[in-house]
Every structure is written in structure tokens, then in C-alpha cells.
Amino acid sequence: MATVSTVTAPQGVGAGAGRPSSSQLSVTAFDIPNSRIVHGEKFPLGLELKSKDTVDIDTAIQKIEELSQAGAFKDLLTNHGTILFRGFPLTNATDFQKFVRAFKFKNPHREVGLAGKRTTVTTDIKTANEEPPDVKFYYHSEYGRSAHFPGILFFYSQIVPESGGQTPLLSSLELYDRLKEDLPEFVRHLEERGIIGRQYFPAKEDPEAEHIGWNWRDSYGWDIKDDDTLEVQRAKVEAVLKDQLEADGEWQPNGSLLVLQRLPAIRYIGSTGKPKPTFFNGLAGVYGRGRDNHALEAPHKGDDGKYHLPTTYGDGSPIPTEYLERLLEISDEIGFLVPWQEGDVALINNFTVQHARTPWVGNRSLLVSLWDGDERFVRREQIPA
Ligand SMILES: [Fe+2]
Fold first, then answer.
1. For residue 53, how far is its CA from the centre of ligand 1 (angstroms)?
2. Segment Disordered: which positions (predicted)?
3. Which of left, alpha, beta for 88 (phi over 0: left; psi -120 to 50: alpha)?
4. How far is the CA of 126 from the centre of ligand 1 (A)?
5. What average pLDDT does this structure show over 31-49?
């Protein structure tokens, strides 16, 4: 694929002097240094807006709308996992909001069980994460620890820091392949047993909640009213856990909530002809943060004052550390760092791509938008032999 669209009309027609119309713009593939080839396709794919003249944001967005309506992005996203858009004149969250809406994805994703610091900037736009810049995040599928996850992620690089801060990405299809090759027993155990993720949510009134950055009422209790008794509040949270996540909640003596989520660690995507296995989970993310914070041993409270509860196999047995260490190594071997330039947007298929975060120095602004896409997982037992 070389060109998504080409210039089709002479300069200056229909757009006023010096300002090209959308039909005069071209969006062309460009080479991203150090990008990878996964299953025969570039990962990620770079698409650049080309114009000799200054392009205004609305015209650029109209171009995206036209390409989107023509179905230009669907297969690209399936085949490449990530598209990095460069050269679009985005300067702020409002531009980014217009940009993401131009793709006409079905629904903005409603987050259930937020366990991170995020601020809503505009209707569909949030800050990516507000933890300090020296905190490293390991690879994870977004909400891969939950039964309710977005299909599509957009990241917008509004301010590029002095150094660091590139977003690591890997193909979770390739990650599955590599694990199957290097650690077949680990993959077999994950397939057979699944996993149980655990997350600690303090009560809102607990001073710990402010330090941790989230609490069970904000993450699950949007139907709670101020005059609800504690019993009613808990019942409402339990209903969300059961109905939306098929998760179990265990109330702790100190008023906190422990959420247990039983999930597969490997899933199968349905849009690729024969369903492909994808390593869709948060295993590396949870283990890496726990290790960095010296929280691998019970009670799993880390140097950062947060709980890092380990993910176990679905039968409750621990996942051997040597497997998790190798998982981190392989992830780094196949990872790609998005070399952000200001105004870049990455469109990511969450079903097939994991992301992470590198520390940085200086001022950085990365905004995010989450959507429910068209991709679906198929159950393993539904796949013909
Ligand atoms: Fe994330």
C-alpha cells in the first residue's frame, strides 16, 4: 500500500487562495525508522498528510472522514495493528476530539473499574495517565485485566518531552508466537487454566484512596447516591461487578474492596479469516510494577505505598517468576518505541497491540481516547479444528 489518496484537483480550487480543499490533500504511507514486520505487514504503518500549503484542521479532518467513509482504515488497522498519523495540524484537545470522531467508531468506550489517574479533558478525551514521569509502565492490553475493554485506542502527542517518553508498542500476535516458541509449557498452562487478576480498591473516605488515586466508589459506584447506606452502596457495586465484568468482589475488614477477575490470558480475534491467538492480558504490566516496587511478596504493598496484587493461574496457583521474567524480556525484544513528534496520533487496535510507557524528562502531554471498535474475540471452542 503506497497511497491512501492522491491529489485530484489543481491547487486553489474550491478552498480559497493558498488553502487546499480536502480533495487536494493526499495521505501517503511513510517509513518509520526501526518499524517491524509482523505477519508480513509493517508494524506500525505510518500515514502522512501531504500538502504544499498550510492545511487547516477542519479540512484535514474532512479528509479523514472521507477516507473513513470509503473504508480505507478498517483493513489497515486489522493488518498493521497500529497506524501512526503524522503531519495533521492538531494543536490541542479540541482538534484531537474532532480527529477521533472523524473515524466514526461505534461508541466511545465507557471505562468500568478505572485503576489509574486520568482526567477528562473533553467528552471523548482524557489524559493518558498522570503518574510521575519516572514511573515505567510495562506492556499491557488496555483493560486487559478486565472483561470490559476498549477495542480502539488513540494516543495524541501534544507535547513531546526533552528526552524519553516514547510509547512502546508490541504486536500481541507476535508476542503469542514468541512465547509459544520459547515457553510452550507456560502458554499451555495459560490456555488450560486461564488467570485470576486481583485489584485493591480502598474506600473513598480512606486517606489511602487519595494516595492510591482511585477507590471503589469512583471506579464502580456511579449509581450510588449520597444518602445510600453502606449496604446499598455495596450492593450497587456488586451488581456492576457481576453484570458488567462477571467479577467477584470481596469486602475487606478495613472497608476496602478486593476485585477478582477470572479471565483467559490468550484470546482469538475473529477478523482475520482463521482466528489468530493474541496475548491479551495485563500480565507483564502487573508483574513489572510489582517487581519494581518490591511488592512480589505478601502483603504485596510496594515502595510506592500501593498494592500490587499478583495475577495467578485460574486455579489460584502462582505463575512462576521465571516465566514472567522471560515474558518481560521477549516483550522488550519485539517492542517498538513510537518516536513521537508533536501532533502525531497513533490509532491502535487494542485486541492485537499492547502498549507501555517509558519514563521521560521535561514536559510531556499525551492524550488518549478509547472506543469500542468492530473487532470481536471468538471463543476457542468455536474455532473449527
Ligand atoms: Fe494503558
1. 36
2. 1-24
3. beta
4. 12
5. 96
pLDDT of residue 15: 40
* 134 Cα–ligand 1 center, Å: 16
43 three-class SS: strand
Burial degree of 297 (CB within 10 A; 0-12, 13-18, 19+): exposed
pLDDT higher than threshold 70 for residue 8? no
- List beta partners, residue 153: 348, 370
Cα(140) to ligand 1 centroid in Å equals 7
From ligand 1's centre to the CA of 34, what distance in Å? 23
Q: Could you tell me the domains of the chain?
A: 3-163+337-382 (3.60.130.10), 175-329 (3.60.130.10)
**How many angstroms separate the alpha carbon of residue 252 from the centre of ligand 1?**
27
The whole-number pLDDT of residue 18 equals 64
E-assigned strand segments in 179-251: 195-201, 248-251
* Average pLDDT value for residue range 39-51: 94
CB-proximal residues (5 Å) to ion ligand 1: 142
Q: What average pLDDT does range 68-92 have in this prediction? A: 95
- Cα of 355 to ligand 1 centre, how many Å? 6
State the average pLDDT over residues 57-86: 95
